[in-house]
Amino acid sequence: MPKIRAFSAHLLTASGSFLAFLSLVAMSEKHWTAAWAWLGVALFVDGIDGPIARRLDVKYVLPNWSGELLDHVIDYVTYVILPAFALYQAGLMGEGLSFVSAALIVISSAIYYADTGMKTEENFFKGFPVVWNIVVFTLFAVHPPAWLAFAFVFMSAVLSFMPVYFVHPVRVRRLRRVTAVFFALWGTTATLTILYYHMEAPDFLRAILIVSGLYLYFIGAVLQIFPRLGRSAVAKAG
What we know:
Structural class: mainly alpha
Number of strands: 2
Strand content: under 5%
Helix content: over 70%
Radius of gyration: 18 Å
Order of helices and strands: HHHHHEHHEHHH
Shape: globular
Strand order of the largest sheet: 1-2
């Protein structure tokens, strides 16, 4: 029975591949609302499968099956390949810049996934953690000028190789409650945006999406620059 429960956790992780396939079908037909909705479900699955696997001691019950490796395979498809394809398929920055941006995304991310030292002791990511699904979705929803969108993609690709901290919204303890609020704001706003026809959300939702997204993008670097920030709260909690 423990093995069946443990294997079911792997099946839950693997279901992300089918969700990715559904998103790919929608993207190929330029049904962007459905495409991002399927990727949103995949992101939700990715958020719950780890805690479930740890609770079921999957690593010890099924030692020959690597949940971490399986997770990386699914993540590269849902976090990298599909957002890059969506950006190119939509021609979000024009044909040329969209193609170059997609190339930057897939190549820089492949190298990033090979980095065995991508996490710090505090569970920050070192370098941009290739969450291109969040970045590209925001570009779809906000519609920035092509030059600005390309500059943001280029900067993020470069930061994949830089020792700049990016926050994990759950595992980093410093300012965790504040970060959780902004992450919930982004997730809620993104969900509401998908519900609008052609994702044409009103300006106030786009503003929330931008502000919460920028917080998540830059708060890791802020905490890196100010290493004492948020430590008192962690000490009290500990």
